[in-house]
Structures are given as C-alpha cells and as structure tokens.
Specification:
This protein has 558 residues and is α/β, with parallel strands linked by helices. The chain has 18 helices and 23 strands. Among the domains are: 64 residues, no CATH class; 77 residues, Helicase, Ruva Protein, domain 3, CATH 1.10.8; 97 residues, Winged helix-like DNA-binding domain superfamily/Winged helix DNA-binding domain (Arc Repressor Mutant, subunit A), CATH 1.10.10; 118 residues. Helix content is 31%, strand content 18%. Strands 6, 7, 8, 9, 10, 11, 12, 13, 14, 15, 17, 20, 22 and 23 form a 14-stranded parallel β-sheet that branches.
C-alpha cells in the first residue's frame, strides 16, 4: 500500500507541476501498455501543443500509446558512417588515413546504432592508429559480446527477458540458421513444429500457430522482414548478427540445440540409413548426385517424422507404399516425387489417412482418384507435375481425374504443370475439366488449354489472391472478365500465353495491385477499365508489342 501511495503522490506532484505549462517529455523504452494506462492521467492536456514521445521495441505498445507512430529502421551505410564519426571525433573530421578502415568498422555494425555507439565509444578513448583500428575490425564481434560491449548485450538481453515463455525457444532457435541469410518463413514454421516448440490451439494447425509466433517476434523487432509474398504475407525474415550471437550464447547455456535438426549433405553417403539415424522429426537431404532415388520402405519406421525434404538439383524420388502409413507427416518437399497408388480405404480404419499432411511438393503423374484425395483431407499446398511425354493411354489417365482436386477443401495453394500441348491428348481424358476448392487463394497453371468455362470457374473463386498463367492457350484467343470476377485478386501474371483479345469491365479485379505480362506478343491491349482500379500499383511488361505498351501507358497515366 505504501508503494501505491507513493506512486500516487508522485503522480499528483507531476500533474500539478505540468498544469498550465507547455512541455515535451520523452518516455524511453516502454515495455507494456499497462505502464501507460497507469501514468497517462498525470499528463494534463493544456491545449498548448504539449507533446509526449515514447520509445519502445514493441509495435503493439507503439500503436496503443501513440496517435502517430514512426518506425525507426536500421541505418544505411551513409547514416552509419555519420553516426560513427560523431561518436569518435565529435565535430572534427576523420583523418584521411583512418577513413577506409573506419568505414569498414561502421559497416560491420550492420546498421544498429547501439553497436556503433559502443564501438565508437571504444575508439574515441583509444589510440587512433590504423593498426589498432584493424585489430578492432577483426575482433568487433568479440568486443560487442563481452567487456566493452556489456552495455550492448544488456540492452539486447532485456528484449529476450521480456519475451513470454512460449516465444523464448522459438527466438533462440534463430541462432541455428546461417549468418547473413534470409530464412524462408515456410522453413521456420516447419522446424518449430518439428522441434515441438508450438502450443496446439483448437481448430488451428501448428503452422498457423507458428506464423502467429513469428509475427510476434517481428512486432518485437527481434526478427526483421526480408521479403514479402505477392499476396502481402511475409516470405522471408532475417536476424541481426548481434541478436544471432545472443541466441547462440543463450541456447548453448540452456542446452536448447541438443535436439537440433538433422541435415544430410551430398558428402554424406548414409541417406539410405536414414530410418536408422533420423530420430529429432525433420529430415532434409540436398544433393546433385542422383537422377532417381528409391526411398526405403523402412522409412515408415521413423514413426515421428514430420518433415521430409529432398532439395537441390536431385532427380526423382520414388516413394514406397509405406509412406501412406506415416500419419505424422506434415510436409513433403521434393524436386519430383512419385507416389504409389494409395491402398484401398476401410471406413472403419483410418490408419492410412494422412490427416496432418499440409504440403506436398511436387508429385509426378499421380492419379487423383476420389480415394487418393480422401487420404490427404487437410492438404494446404500442392504442386502437381505431369510428365512432358505421356506415352500411352494408360499414362494419360492421370489427366482424367484432376477435377477431383475440388474435394480438397483446405487447399490454399495449387500449382499444376501439364504436358506440353495438352489439347492433343484423347478428348475423353479431358472431358471433365478443371475444378478447384473454394478456399483456394493461389493458383498457378502451366501448359493448359483454357476454355471459357475454365476461365469463368477461375473467376468465380472468391478467395483467389494470386493467379499465374504460363504457356497456356485461350480458346479462340479471347478472355472476358466481367460481373465482379476475381474479387480478391491482388497479383496477376500472364506469361507466354496466346491471348489476343482481353475484355473486362470496372467490376472485375477490384483490388488488383500488380499486373505482370511477359512474352504476350499477340495481345492487342490491356482493357482500358484496368486504369480505373484504384489499388493498381504496377503494370510490368516484358517482351510485349511496342505499340501496345505505349498505348496502355498513356491510358494508365490518365
């Protein structure tokens, strides 16, 4: 009670002292909205343009406490050098013989003002010789992580100490990734799920939970955004070197990496023994040494395996029938994988239903029967490849069942590459046209003959945000988009297609942001109605008819 009474008295004194006065107050390093709620009433609004400035590392605190938020980004090279000079030399100029090495030191701070301040403070009170500064450059990471850098470490550690318990292992795991590399979000979410860092939530898959965790780390400025996807979601992230060093140090202290992932390289010949060696839930293999690999049937004995990756320029992976028994599988990612026909289902026995499988990239010449679709009911991302040469009628059967993909109601991203000149295959195999699930938000088609019905069906997808058509033909060379088609489409790419006439109205593509057209030589013009789309930010044309380009640039400028 005494503490509360003292706080109230201090607040009362502050309020009385500020009443009727014009003031500018800076509140540094605010960590919670509760702090602001507790003190906000002690700052009177005198109607004289008084101001409060907050600094915080948490985005949600910034938006909650302030009416105007300014995000402070990492410094660029010029800004780093300016701050470095001020810290080391004050108002004096940097000696010419120290400028080159000084710029290298400033660059090594990677845009973090705190690092520049610490290193600059050290150099300001030390010998200003080229030899000494070279020694600092070579040992800059050591300096920042100990001794002179204690201040730097303490500031960074406070960000970690304020993390909720469920985010701490996720953050520390960032230390396992290579330095100065952007990390795909898809890889992070798979690894966090495999390592068991995520807390399951009702009606949400682990990867969605992982995306929430990652967003929280981004909002806390512990993880930085690298690139965005076409639909606006984060594609990749990265972490500052000093924060990575902190992750490694703390993770080593807490023994977090004792269960780190298994990653076999091309120099490791033990891939065939993975069922014996791979126990941690994540297996990845990268090589360029084989054109075809038979995955051993003993893979099913790794009962807890969640993620299976074969990447690089490796060839075809031949999966055994036992893969349908691996109920924990969440992600299969290969350059090409050939799956066996699924076993017959028994309605009373669902042991061969891969309920957890969300990613399947990329499966070759698979026959998508109703039976097959039932085995992967929760698939979210699917990439399908049909061989360039289907030799006989039996091979062509894989084209007959593609309409069954509409039964995959959780599917969000679909990429399909058909054989070249698909229209030449037997008519009865293509009698059942494409059909897609309603939740689809990304669709990529390559080498497909699009009828008016196909295009109308695609236009009716209410959640579609990304559409990419490549090496595809349009019936009669015409494409008509009317009556509010593609209401959520943000990105449209047309590549090497034979469309000639494209008609549209002002109700189609209402939220389109980017249009990319490549090698569309026959298209006469972009519909003038596209110029009425208020959200359209970019039209990118490459190898298109010159007159068409000038004609539409003029329309767009109006």
């Amino acid at each position: 009670m005494d503490n509360e009474r003292d706080e109230y008295r201090l607040g009362e004194q502050l309020y009385k002292g500020l009443t009727g006065r014009r003031y500018l107050i800076v509140l540094d390093d605010v960590w919670s909205v509760e702090v602001w709620d507790k003190i906000r009433f002690y700052f009177p609004d005198n109607g004289n343009r008084s101001r409060l400035i907050f600094t915080t590392r948490l985005s949600d605190v910034a938006f909650y406490c302030g009416s105007c938020c300014v995000r402070v980004n990492l410094l660029d090279e010029c800004e780093c050098w300016d701050l470095f000079c001020v810290r080391v030399f004050g108002e004096e100029d940097c000696p010419l013989e120290l400028e080159q090495i000084g710029r290298e030191i400033a660059k090594m701070c990677k845009g973090l003002p705190l690092s520049i301040t610490v290193i600059g403070g050290l150099l300001q009170k030390s010998a200003k010789t080229v030899e000494y500064w070279h020694n600092v450059l070579e040992n800059i990471r050591v300096i920042l992580s100990s001794g002179e850098g204690d201040q730097c470490l303490n500031v960074l550690y406070s960000s970690y100490s304020h993390l909720p318990a469920h985010l701490k292992p996720c953050f520390l795991y960032m230390g396992t990734f290579q330095e100065d590399r952007e990390i795909p979000v898809s890889r992070i979410t798979k690894l966090w799920a495999a390592e068991g860092f995520l807390k399951p939530k009702a009606a949400r898959v682990l990867e969605e939970v992982a995306e929430d965790y990652l967003k929280d780390l981004i909002d806390r400025n512990l993880v930085l955004v690298g690139k965005y996807r076409k639909n606006g979601k984060v594609r990749s992230v990265y972490i500052h070197d000093l924060l990575r060093d902190l992750c490694i140090s703390l993770a080593d202290r807490e023994k977090l990496f004792s269960s780190a992932r298994v990653w076999y390289t091309s120099e490791d010949s033990s891939v065939r023994d993975l069922s014996r060696k791979c126990k941690l839930r994540f297996f990845a293999y990268s090589t360029a040494n084989f054109s075809e690999f038979n995955l051993p049937s003993s893979i099913s004995s790794v009962w807890n395996l969640q993620t299976l990756i074969f990447q690089g320029t490796c060839g075809l992976v031949d999966a055994p029938a036992e893969i349908w028994e691996m109920s924990q599988l969440r992600h299969i990612v290969c350059n090409k994988i050939r799956l066996p026909d699924p076993p017959p289902s028994d309605q009373e026995d669902d042991t061969c239903v891969l309920r957890n499988l969300q990613t399947l990239v990329q499966v070759v010449n698979f026959i998508w029967t109703e039976e097959a679709c039932k085995i992967i009911p929760n698939i979210k991302k699917l990439r399908v490849v049909f061989g360039d040469v289907l030799t006989d009628y039996e091979d062509c059967l894989c084209l007959h069942y593609i309409h069954n993909l509409c039964s995959l109601q959780k599917l969000e991203s679909l990429n399909m590459r058909f054989p070249f000149c698909i229209s030449r295959y037997p008519v009865d195999l293509l009698s059942k046209r494409l059909a897609f699930p309603t939740r689809l938000n990304k669709l990529c088609l390559r080498n497909y003959s699009l009828t008016r019905e196909d295009l109308a069906m695609i236009g009716s997808l209410q959640h579609l945000q990304v559409l990419e058509l490549e090496h595809s033909s349009f019936l009669g060379g015409e494409w008509s988009t009317f009556n509010g088609e593609c209401p959520c489409l943000k990105f449209l790419r047309i590549d090497s297609c034979d469309v000639v006439c494209w008609a549209s109205d002002t109700f189609a593509f209402r939220v389109l942001e980017k249009l990319v057209a490549r090698d569309v030589w026959q298209l006469q013009e972009i519909p003038s109605e596209m110029g009425e789309i208020s959200t359209l930010k970019l039209i990118h044309l490459h190898h298109c008819v010159k007159t068409w380009y000038h004609h539409n640039v003029e329309k767009r400028s109006k």
